[in-house]
């Protein structure tokens, strides 16, 4: 046996084997982590000059649950918004220098620019483990009731500038999580028609009203609406949340200035 192994130090072999394995593991995990968002791009949408020390992995195809097809990554960016490319004129760079910020050239909330930007997600509802839409109106569910706090249904909706723009008509629940995700309200008067959703986090339920402070009365008519009365898609959710979130900055010109 001694003649076969000679002066081999098995402890040294073991530790070097571990380091080689660990280096390969780090390389594998890092490249797998680069399946989305790579290759890197600059502000103009061109390939970045610095792609990093690790190569982009070979494309791999994944099958989506519930028969929603397949997706290949790395591959085409399905969530890219081509309408936000600078050539479309919806935003421009503040200074013509790499890395400088962009600003809106029109109505940022309608164009979906800056804080009001949304991703081009799939126009299908999010599903639970059984393939059913997760977020649904409470009016269509049995066995759910408001167990704590105020029930906002029937309360008036007040805008950030103090106008009553509608009335709460329903709550939309994340059924598997048993959480309220959105409040549904019906627009009244000169503020538009039909129903809209507002994320529960951006609505303050008070004793006699529901206040939505991020946008003003003139903005409610342009709140993105739903195609269906019983479900909301991923794309619709992104657009709705972006619109209210963008109002935090764009609803009033004074909000664009530094706040103390």
Describe the structure.
It is a single chain. The protein is an alpha+beta fold and 260 residues long. Helices cover 18% and strands 19% of the residues. Strands 5, 6, 7, 8, 9, 10 and 11 form a seven-stranded mixed sheet that branches. Strands 1-2 form a two-stranded antiparallel ribbon. The model has no long low-confidence stretch (mean pLDDT 89).
Task: Give me the secondary-structure topology.
Layout (H helix, E strand, L loop, with lengths): L1 H4 L4 H23 L27 E4 L6 E4 L17 E3 L8 E3 L3 H4 L23 E3 L18 E3 L5 E11 L4 E9 L7 E5 L4 E2 L4 E2 L22 H17 L10
Parallel strand pairs: 6-11
Antiparallel strand pairs: 1-2, 3-4, 5-7, 6-7, 7-8, 8-9, 10-11
Keywords:
260 residues; alpha+beta; 7-stranded mixed sheet; two-stranded antiparallel sheet; 4 helices; 18% helix
Task: Work out the radius of gyration.
Answer: 26 Å
Low-confidence stretches: none
Q: pLDDT average, as an integer?
A: 89
Residue fraction in strands = 15-25%
Output the helix-strand order. Answer: HHEEEEHEEEEEEEH
Structural class comes to: alpha+beta
Bin the helical content.
10-25%
Largest sheet: 7 strands, mixed
Tell me the distance between the termini: 79 Å
Number of strands: 11
Q: Please work out how many helical segments DSSP would assign.
A: 4
Shape: extended
How would you briefly describe this protein structure?
This protein is an alpha+beta fold and 260 residues long. Helices cover 18% and strands 19% of the residues. Strands 5, 6, 7, 8, 9, 10 and 11 form a seven-stranded mixed β-sheet that branches. Strands 1-2 form a two-stranded antiparallel sheet.
